[in-house]
Write a structure and sequence with these properties.
Mean pLDDT: 95
Strand order of the largest sheet: 3-2-4-5-7-6
Structural class: alpha/beta
Radius of gyration: 24 Å
Number of helices: 23
């Protein structure tokens, strides 16, 4: 008799072939054969308390490891619960696969348990969405879904697998099982050589260039090329998204607080791996007289919302390396004459820092949010992965917190999803147990997915959690008060005064309550030493708002 294999075991083999070593899941009757296959293939199964967390964790795993993440959820509400996580990965260009259950094909359109048109719902927010039609094709289509994750800029894929397809067994020789490393090609492109030469020319003639290193620098693992580019050509660098940490704080080419000034005064602005979306004022924040170059993995992003002088489609690391080589080979590449430009920007940077410093050192009670994020920044080590999950409080942190190493900053991305923090911490610590993981939550953001703190305890995934607690959804509260008046500023946005430190203790972790700013650092040290999942609940002033919150256009 020939050896047989089930659909669930074929899924596990395809995951193993892709290098996936963990799945994030919430159990359901439609998907349990995948668990059985994962046990045989040595793939860890981390079961969470909400499917949104499973999807966010798969997204976070991809960001940390560079490999695609995988979440497995049941049909119907299991899949719909995961939609937010998939949508977040879609906007953040994160490669992950969501596998959803489905009723048996033999019961198609009969009203089976938890039957919904999952593929129709997932198609607009994925790069690929399909139903697996037969057991023989399971591994083949899983591999196809992973391949589609890397078409252009990366992103998520979705597969639904009917229960009878998943549970059925077929002769092993009839199943198509793609061989590891043989079913997809490299997507790394250096860009048009003529465009590279044009960029080298622009650099050679620029007096005041600057570069914005966005998330694709990390996605492409182009850190070394980016560092060599800015140093060899003497170009001031700003970083956003996962690009933060490309240069360490204190590096002479690392700038943060002078970005608006640079975008106004520069004669050449190079935007790498960042779309002209709301975060960039749809391109309107760039000087209208500057030459603008945009480098991106996705052709559709280049030149969208704003005219550019040069667009290059390609891998951020390869493009920057080629441009640096082309420019450095010239007798005059402009690097030497940019000393005064860097000094000009450094003066603006220093002035902005000194203006804000009194608030960062404030002893006020309730605690000024600037003091909290200052203490966090001082607490970070080179091995600390920082995660921001919140509205107003995380907007404060974006001005102050500077990761010390590449790939050590995580935030939701342009979808602005609250509730990613616990899942990102889970994925980061599971994938990199050698790293310290620190997450700053808003109290509203923590409330969305906070029960998975217990999952962190159950799987022994220690991290340092900090809740900036103002008992409000304060970013929205500001907008309501500004738009409708203070007397209507507390409608639908005010939360209870919750002692989240006690919540952590209830679930088996370490917790503290902090109301004195002098106690922030000692509490963080005790959390670090506890070796447990932790929550330090810091009560911050609810009447103080981040400048980024007050400048949001939707409130004007």
């Amino acid at each position: 008799m020939s050896e047989t294999i089930s659909g669930g075991h074929l899924v596990a083999k395809a995951l193993k072939a892709e290098g996936v070593d963990v799945i994030y899941t919430l159990c359901g009757g439609h998907i349990i054969d995948i668990y059985d296959g994962c046990v045989d293939e040595g793939i860890e199964v981390i079961d969470v308390r909400h499917e949104q967390v499973a999807a966010h964790a798969a997204d976070g795993y991809a960001r940390i490891t560079g490999k695609p993440g995988c979440a497995v959820v049941t049909a119907g509400p299991g899949t719909t619960d995961a939609v937010t996580g998939v949508a977040n990965a879609f906007r953040a260009e994160s490669p992950m696969l969501l596998i959803g259950g489905q009723g048996a094909l033999s019961q198609h359109k009969m009203g089976s348990l938890q039957d919904l048109p999952h593929v129709d719902m997932m198609t607009p927010i994925t790069k690929f969405a399909a139903t697996v039609p037969s057991t023989e094709r399971v591994a083949d289509i899983v591999s196809m879904a992973f391949r589609e994750c890397y078409h252009g800029a990366p992103g998520p894929s979705f597969l639904e697998i009917p229960r009878d397809v998943l549970d059925a067994k077929v002769p092993l020789e009839k199943a198509r099982i793609p061989e590891p490393g043989h079913y997809r090609a490299s997507t790394r492109q250096q860009g048009d050589p003529e465009a590279i030469e044009r960029l080298a020319d622009l650099l050679a003639h620029a007096e005041k260039p600057c570069i914005l290193l966005g998330s694709q620098v990390w996605t492409c693992r182009g850190t070394d090329a980016a560092i060599d580019f800015v140093r060899s050509l003497n170009v001031p660098a700003y970083m956003n998204g996962s690009g933060r940490g490309t240069l360490p704080p204190g590096d002479p080419h690392h700038f943060q607080l002078s970005r608006r000034y640079a975008f106004t005064e520069a004669d050449l602005i190079i935007i790498v791996g960042t779309p002209f979306d709301f975060r960039m004022g749809y391109g309107k924040r760039l000087s209208p007289t500057a030459k603008v170059v945009q480098i991106d993995l996705d052709y559709r992003t280049v030149g969208k919302n704003r005219d550019i002088d040069l667009g290059i489609v390609g891998d951020a690391g390869l493009v920057l390396a080629a441009a640096a080589q082309a420019a450095s080979g010239r007798i005059e590449n402009g690097a030497a004459r940019r000393k005064e430009w860097l000094e000009e920007l450094r003066a603006v940077e220093t002035q902005a820092y000194e203006k804000r410093l009194p608030r960062q050192l404030s002893d006020a009670q309730p605690i000024d949010p600037y003091r909290l994020v200052h203490e966090i920044n001082e607490f970070l080590t080179e091995d600390t992965i920082y995660i921001g999950d919140g509205g107003d409080i995380v907007t404060f942190s974006g001005q102050v917190v500077q990761p010390k190493s590449p790939g050590h900053w995580m935030d939701p991305g342009p979808l602005g999803t609250l509730g990613v923090g616990m899942a990102f911490a889970m994925a980061a610590k599971q994938a990199r147990r050698d790293k310290e993981v620190l997450c700053l939550f808003g109290d509203g953001a923590f409330s969305l997915t906070g029960w998975d703190f217990e999952t962190m305890v159950r799987f022994d995934l220690p991290f340092i959690g900090i809740v900036g607690n103002n008992s409000s959804m304060n970013q929205i509260r500001y907008g309501q008060a500004a738009k409708y008046g203070e007397d209507r500023g507390r409608v639908g946005n005010t939360l209870g005064d919750i002692r989240y430190g006690d919540f952590a203790k209830l679930l088996g972790g370490y917790g503290e309550e902090v109301r004195d700013p002098a106690e922030i650092r000692p509490a963080l040290e005790r959390a670090r030493q506890s070796g447990k999942p932790s929550l330090i609940n810091v009560w911050v002033d609810p009447e103080v708002y981040a400048p980024g919150t007050m400048n949001q256009t939707m409130y004007k």
